Amino acid sequence: MDKNINIKLRIWRQKGPKEKGGFENYELQNVSQGSSFLEMLDILNEKLINEGKDPVVFDHDCREGICGMCSLYINGHPHGPDEDVTTCQLHMRKFNDGDTITVEPWRSAGFPVIKDLMVDRSAFDKIIQAGGYISVNTGGVPDANSIPIPKEQADMAMDAAACIGCGACVAACKNGSAMLFVSAKVSQFALLPQGRVEAARRAKNMVAKMDELGFGNCTNTGACEVECPKNISISNIARLNREFLKAKFKD
Amino acid sequence: MNKINSKIPQGPLAQKWTNYKDHQKLVNPANKRRLDIIVVGTGLAGASAAATLGEQGFNVLNFCIQDSPRRAHSIAAQGGINAAKNYPNDGDSVYRLFYDTIKGGDYRAREANVYRLAEVSNNIIDQCVAQGVPFAREYGGLLDNRSFGGAQVSRTFYARGQTGQQLLLGAYSALSRAIQKKQVKLYTRHEMLDLVIIDGRARGIITRNLVTGKLERFAAHAVVIATGGYGNTFFLSTNAMNSNASAAWQCYKKGAYFANPCMTQIHPTCIPVHGEFQSKLTLMSESLRNDGRIWVPKKKEDAQAIREGKLKANDIKEEDRDYYLERRYPAFGNLVPRDVASRAAKERCDAGYGVGPTGLAVYLDFKEAIERLGKDVVEQKYGNLFQMYEKIVDENPYETPMMIYPAIHYTMGGIWVDYELMTSIPGLFAIGEANFSDHGANRLGASALMQGLADGYFILPYTIQNYLADQIQVPRFKTDRPEFDEAEKGINERIDRLMSIKGKHSVDHIHKELGHIMWEYVGMARDAEGLKVAIEKLQQLKKDFLTNLRIPGDKDSLNVELEKALRLQDFIELGELMAHDALDRNESCGGHFRTEFQTPDGEALRNDDEYAYVSCWEYQGEDKAPVMYKEPLDYEFVVRQQRNYKS
Description:
By secondary structure, chain A is of the alpha+beta class. Chain A has helices spanning 37-50, 122-129, 151-161, 168-172, 179-190, 193-196, 199-212, 223-227, 235-250; strands spanning 4-13, 22-32, 73-74, 77-78, 100-104, 113-115, 118-119. The model of chain A has no long low-confidence stretch (mean pLDDT 96). In chain B, the strands form 5 sheets. In chain B, strands 5-2-1-9-17 form a 5-stranded parallel β-sheet. Chain B has a 5-stranded antiparallel β-sheet with strand order 11-15-14-12-13. Chain B has helices spanning 16-23, 29-32, 44-56, 94-104, 111-130, 163-180, 246-253, 300-307, 324-328, 338-353, 367-373, 375-393, 448-468, 482-501, 507-521, 528-548, 560-584, 608-611, and strands spanning 36-40, 59-63, 81-82, 156-157, 184-187, 190-198, 201-209, 215-219, 222-225, 258-259, 264-270, 293-297, 321-322, 362-365, 402-411, 414-415, 428-430, 613-618, 627-632. Chain B is of the alpha+beta class and 647 residues long.
């Protein structure tokens, strides 16, 4: 059964991208374990506002684990200690009375801090813009059932497409690599006949953009897969490498 | 004098859209380059419109409040998207999809709009497959379908329980390509705070850069609003935390009519409220009603024992369970439309049969489906939803029935638009959930995705040209014109006023109060007396807001509380308009249920003689009552009937 707990919080506060940040300590009493982690931060912010202080800034939106907007590095894990969830679906029942919880922003060269726990992830948009699509205009496309696709193939494409673009993979990686994110999009399209047409160009352009934006290289530690809230598999990285090499050999 | 001209084309229903397209004005490629279009919002409607208009050659400026276009709340739609493909060969057709949508909307939508929606539905599926959207497939490699509420055919295409995500990512990829090709310029973390009108036409917007706090000006030949619905007026809803009505509301205050504000949809299958600190409600997809059976105990003492924790759901014997939807609606059973299912749940709970600690919940049970299909099949179909449920409630739905309760989900009302999706302000368009157009008094499941993409991919990119064809001689506007100065000055004054209150309550504190008032008096069941109380309370709340609000920090930098305060101020005003509209409509229809108007067995009682119209509200100024115009809904092709889901 859920009960109420008392917790201590160590939260990263940073006024702006160029300012020096640091940890601040807070205490909260009687937090229901039935509340989500972000609802706990709402309670903290309500308290800070009532005390005339600046509330903690963090990104969040749908609060049902799908928009990818929430982030937070909690006790050393992107999206916290629970498995297969985003921070918005992490619940306080994963913590115990008296716990000290450390909350940091995503830390990566690719994601500069905007304020407190909010970071700039526009690099991900730029990578998608470099090739994360099938080049079709609206209209003039064939009937949806004109190309049969084996169910297993479609299911694997869907597994890859489930990526929510939150950036946990980059935050988890000691190299700050975005390979899991890039490989998920490359794989989704590489697995579908519609996406094969541009497969080579896509792999090359997206990888080049990723390198240009300051993300690190992949050394196969597998941390990204472990921390991914949507269970995106690193077999996608293998597929990306294959697609990338194939494309380079052709050049 | 009737001020409302819906511009519905002449001719037989099935020919209207074709005729329109055959005769509308177009803009040639060289001229398209000289025309700028602002699109506010990057959800299904906004992203698809921005991408398509960009591909066509227009110069598009696209805005969103999040850090990326992919965050828009369309992403959270779970169940699916309807289309009249008739792939399962079960008797579907464009006409049948049209008819089901009109009937599902309780005969309060425009025939011509809905028919067009059904017509283009098939193009959407083709488009999405071409974009690489991984829809569910059969072993033969062709697309799979499932059924949804309010239909007797299987016409819903889906991508697991994440259809909205996959469709939005499809539109986002098209948008990203257009950005790469410099057809669209993207502005993230920008919030529209006002519409700029020059000589009676929409010509620009003012935004607040949410990172720097700076107000910025943008001019264009046309402005498209695609900012979604106003469900967050209720504080607790299935909408995202940042979903808001402010862009639409500023358009209303600049003269765009707001249509059918009282038409709000309560979704029957949401995870019940569990405490005061709750920040939002989570939806469990309607698709679950394909295989889940809804029930409460037959005996009040059993329900009582469950509420007290003495009995569990699985302790209740089969013969002591009341599958009330199957009992009341034999023909549609658990797949009745949302408004019907929601009210039936409320009826049982109000009568004392509710379960869960609060008594405000009913069961959604998969025991039979698991026995019939096996756990694996159920997991394949609904695995992500079951996982989500377990993470939130801490109970395993494979073993114990889910608990669900209705919650605010979608708003059928919105900015009034004509057949061309243009508002009552020339040059201002509204698409997707932000407009009122296609769902009447109740939206069917899997139709929101259809409408958002229909508007964005296949309707607006045509109709907007009929307007822009006259604008090719109009040069680009400079943003140092007095109209921009004045709009910016207004925003600055508004922000300064809010910052200077320095009261004692946070934005959320006041927003929760608004939510309580709305849910209590303007929620699932309404009556004249309660609505009058609501209006009084909302006027008081408006004053409280202006005396008690506290916003920390300053206006010239990132300030989340200021963002929320501006949105809340608009929600409070919009809430009042919703109450006025609900009070005006002395009938029950779809999501609008007035307890004074019901049939002897508790179904919605429409009044077609007096209320077969769209209510179009026009703003008259602060503290002045708005004026309402009526757009009559003359049905030429369908005979209105009492909705029947029983036989």
